[in-house]
Amino acid sequence: MNHKQTFRHEFRGGYIWSPKRRKDGARNIFYDFMRMVRPGDVVFSYADGLIHGSGAAKTHCYTSPRPDEFGHIGNAWDVIGWRVDVEFAAAANPIQPRAVLDEIGPHIGVRHSPLNADGTGRQAVYLAAIPDVLGHIVAERIGFVVPAVQVAELGSGNNIEVELPGIDEWEQVEERKIESSELPQTERAALIKSRLGQGRFKTNVSRFETRCRVTQVSNPVHLIASHIKPWRESNNEERLAAGNGLLLTPSIDHLFDRGFISFADSGETLISPIADVDSLRRMGVDPGNPPRVGGFNSDQKYFLQHHRTSIFLEGVSA
Question: Which of 2, 53, 196, 222 lies in disulfide reach of 90, CB 3.0 to 4.6 Å?
Fold first, then answer.
């Protein structure tokens, strides 16, 4: 990744962050690449002509507000963007790619490469995949070794769930805004409860939804009112709107909230290419035969469009 302007914040902070789209609203393949990152992927940090270090991704990509420390530097114009948490470590031997051009040159490639043919960085590239052989050469040159604990956890098939600091901080900020507002106490309580899929929001959603769309569980004790447009991204009206909700069992709510599944307006369950197939099956979602969950009303379709474009982890065709 090439992050000259945000290197200090991201490297020390243990994350990488990008806008979701270009300033003119168009898609940017190098921002879209954020959606391809998987836990355990190695990320090399390039800034000011040097590969300063590297790290292992701790999370999938997730929606997160622009870090406060960015201010208005560089191209960080969007309020909401993509974030991946990364455990960075400084290189034992930082290198200039062009200084080892004889070794890496044959593997730089052309399309979507983060490096020019002469070994200098491509300014327009924020994040891009590199060939494995190039990654091994760079890792050896800078003295990078993936921490053993991460290899054990991520390679065992029993990945440990990690917290998503960006989301936790975001929701805490939003909750404090509600608590300090001049809204009546009952309204503040309803808005805060809605974050957990309970209270007035669940009552509102239950007028239209009677069971989990995927598992067909109908006992309300086992159901969460899941926001289609996440609570953290919604305004107060949307946080309580019946059309912004589905009743889901906790495991399905997790898959939906984290972007591993979404729904088409036609009722087809959409499966993210980065979702763990075995886990999906155990949760009742067969990727080979995705369940059809029925139609949606116009309000739900409106919010589902947001979910599919901003939350659903579709991956990228390179």
Answer: 53
Q: What's the chain look like in SS3?
A: CECCCCHHHHHHHCEEEEECCCCCCCCCHHHHHHHHCCCCCEEEEEECCEEEEEEEECCCCEEEECCHHHCCCCCCCCCEEEEEEEEEEEEEEEECHHHHHHHHHHHCCCCCCCECCCCCECCCCCCCCCCHHHHHHHHHHHCCCCCHHHHHHHHCCCCCCCCCHHHHHHHHHHHHHHHCCCCCHHHHHHHHHHCCCCHHHHHHHHCCCCCCCCCCCCCHHHCEEEECCCHHHCCHHHHHCHHHEEEECHHHHHHHHCCCEEECCCCEEEECCCCCHHHHHHCCCCCCCCCECCCCCHHHHHHHHHHHHHCCCCCCCC
Q: Report pLDDT digits (tens) over 154-186.
A: 333 344 445 677 788 888 889 999 999 999 999
Average pLDDT over residues 50-59: 92
